[in-house]
Design goal:
With 425 residues, the chain is of the alpha/beta class. The chain contains 15 helices and 14 strands. It folds into 3 domains: 172 residues, Aconitase, domain 3 (2-Layer Sandwich); 108 residues; 118 residues, Aconitase, domain 3 (2-Layer Sandwich), CATH 3.30.499. Helix 1 packs across helix 2, helix 7 packs parallel to helix 8 and helix 8 packs parallel to helix 14. The radius of gyration is 21 Å and the shape is globular.
């Protein structure tokens, strides 16, 4: 996103009071950061935010310096004024010892969570806050950080947020406002790339593969997808959050955000702003792309050999319906490779109540809350190849986890967990 310096940032008396230190040093620092970002990006005003989602939670990424930063802000009396929640941590906060997390890492991670709690940030530790009671309304302004959560909130729910850095999001939580630029504005939400999708989309993995291809071309632009063969019923879904296509849309956006830096996309006739505006959603001079074949994505996302060491499901975090699907597909079999399924604490608790957790554990699966392989200390475990149905994880696995990846549909991944071999799905 291009930036330009300006000093024409309108502030109300409450904002100026924060900058003057009248609400304490912590609030002053937060106001200073938010207004500085606003000036850098040419904002004319600040807008109140309905909620904030803060990234920079895993101790693997924060380290000692990040932990000290959080403690310092908390020590200055800083505290969130609006609902604020956390991105995944580097481990399951409850069962981390049973999962083999090193003691030193585990204790430091708990200190990070404690520091955020002192700042008034709820330790949801999920990349799918919209599934655990933090679903924004259409048109609401947010300050969210996690790439897959940002693109889902903007695209599927029609909320408005830029892809905030961790400190900027935390500052917005303390101030209760963010700078009004970028995707908070109507003009920036129009499509800069029109993508004609001429191949069928049958599985969630197909949507992830499509997102991977689109993200590479779109960069930080706004794609509009025109599906020539939309899955039956997709266009009729008014409530996409509760749609059976939720996993598909979640995977699509997460992949675009990982292979590019897409924070908003539209699907003609499907997503709320595209339904509302029709062809007017397309910006003048938009580029065009046609996709006839998903096989290049499957090939590029499959960097490992057929033999796999670990299978990972739930990036972004699995919904209850996805856990039920996994339990049904693996039922009656026993895995021969570690099968790690990551989800939110709230979804895990409901899965336990419904008996889904017991069914998965009988098959040998490990269901983890609070964490994700992308931010966990994966090099500690010595795995070499991960099989996954997540294009986001397959994109990040080599650089973030030190793992080669095999990518394919959920069924193929679960078969690999049983047989130890990933076959083309």
């Amino acid at each position: 996103m291009a930036s330009r310096m300006t000093t024409d940032l309108a502030l109300d008396p409450a904002d100026r009071a924060c900058l003057a230190g009248e609400r304490g040093e912590g609030a002053r620092l937060a106001a200073q950061l938010v207004t500085s970002l606003g000036r850098i990006y040419g904002a004319e005003r600040l807008v109140p935010v309905a909620s904030v989602q803060v990234a920079g939670v895993s101790y693997r990424n924060l380290g000692a310096a990040g932990l000290e930063f959080l403690r310092e802000w908390a020590g200055k009396g800083a505290a969130a004024r609006v609902p604020a929640m956390l991105n995944p941590a580097g481990m399951d906060l409850v069962a981390w010892r049973a999962h083999g997390i090193p003691e030193e890492f585990g204790l430091r991670q708990l200190e990070v969570i404690e520091a955020y709690a002192r700042l008034g940030v709820v330790p949801t530790c999920t990349c799918t806050p919209y599934l655990v009671g933090y679903a924004p309304h259409y048109g609401e302004h947010l300050a969210w950080s996690e790439s897959s959560a940002v693109v889902f909130a903007n695209s599927i729910l029609g909320a408005r947020t830029n892809r905030e850095g961790g400190p900027g999001a935390l500052a917005a939580a303390i101030l209760g406002k963010t700078a009004c630029y970028g995707l908070h504005l109507d003009g920036a939400r129009r499509a800069t790339l029109v993508v004609d999708v001429a191949c069928p989309l049958r599985t969630t993995a197909d949507f992830g593969a499509l997102g991977y291809l689109v993200g590479r071309v779109a960069g930080d632009g706004v794609p509009l997808l025109r599906l020539w063969e939309p899955p039956d019923g997709l266009e009729a879904q008014a409530d996409l959050l509760r749609s059976p296509f939720l996993p598909h849309l979640k995977a699509l956006g997460a992949a675009m955000a990982a292979s590019g830096a897409v924070a908003l996309f539209h699907i003609a006739g499907v997503t709320p702003e595209a339904r509302e505006q029709g062809e007017e959603i397309i910006a003048p001079g938009a580029a065009h792309l046609r996709i006839d074949d998903l096989s290049p994505a499957y090939g590029e996302l499959g960097t490992g050999g057929d033999a796999v060491d670990v299978v990972s499901i739930g990036c972004p975090h699995a919904s209850l319906a996805e856990l039920a699907q996994a339990a049904a597909l693996v039922g009656g079999r026993r895995v021969s490779r570690p099968l790690w399924i990551t989800t939110s604490r709230a979804v895990l608790d409901e899965a336990r109540r419904q008996g889904l957790l017991a069914a998965l554990e009988r098959a040998g699966a490990t269901v983890m809350a609070d964490t994700c392989l992308v931010v966990a200390p994966m090099r500690h475990f010595g795995f070499r190849v991960v099989a996954t149905d997540s294009a986001k994880l397959a994109t990040y696995a080599p650089g973030h986890c030190g793992l080669a990846a095999r990518y394919g549909p959920l069924e193929a991944c679960l078969d690999a967990a049983v047989t130890g071999v990933m076959r083309d799905g």
